Amino acid sequence: MVRPSLSDVSPGMWRREAGTEVRRVAPSPEQETAPYAITAGLRIPRVPTEWVPHAHALHELVWVRGGTLTSRVEDRVFTVSEGHGLWMPAGVVHGGRATAGARFHEAFFAPDRAPFAFGEPRAIVMTPLLDSLLSHLSRTDLDAAARARAESVVFDVLQPVDHLFALQLPGDARIDAIAEALLDDPADNRSLEEWARHLGISDRTVTRAFRHATGLSFAQWRQVLRVHRALTLLAEGLDVTTVSEVLGYAQPSTFIASFRRVMGTTPGAFFDVADTTSGNVRNPVLPVQNS
After folding, report:
1. Rounded to an integer, what distance in angstroms lies between the CA atom of residue 172 and that of residue 201?
2. Does residue 286 surpass a pLDDT of 50?
3. Fewer CB within 10 Å, N or C, the chain?
């Protein structure tokens, strides 16, 4: 698979938060030379942090606690919420952004020592066992035998999931302005017809372009985009009513129905499962009156 150069990938995702720190990623000699099959670590950004597009010589698995992580790979935006991780294959150019205070975990896998290979970014369920094993491997006092045992169990339990938290961007010059505007403000409620007039093209052109580029209608694509944004807002502790208002829904019940159509469950149930999977008891999704 042909990989884009660093200059081919835009770091733009959601609207950048005030005070965001933008960082370049310098390859770590220890990581790139892969002294072990798996190396792991933790960092806690004190402010919203964005990493410009970069690639690693090693496979990377990232997951967060107490926040969310978004990552852009070519024309896809991935949203990683609590209870899940994102596998990034070696050599894939990607940008990333983490919310302030999120416990940002990462593990690097030597490609020549991993018994599997995912050619594309994949969602990973971060079970308590997998999380504990990778935390164990972040220790610097493990002897070779102990490390080898833990690594072998990681390889046994690390599994991708079918549901991929990815938003497909159009990548079509005729409608890219729509996508960028909605990334900047998901509550933008302009209709397809209004967008067509604004861009000076026909309704049919907009409809066909979205279908061809994303496989979804304009309305469906905007719904998916809003749900992706909701994952971040809910993880930050906003209640369902507030999130529905921020995203431009007239009623919380409409937002909940939209979330269910995209994710297969309600916001409350989704985060309950995430908290159970990660071993946490926190649930930022507050109940909604009369919805």
Report:
1. 13
2. no
3. N
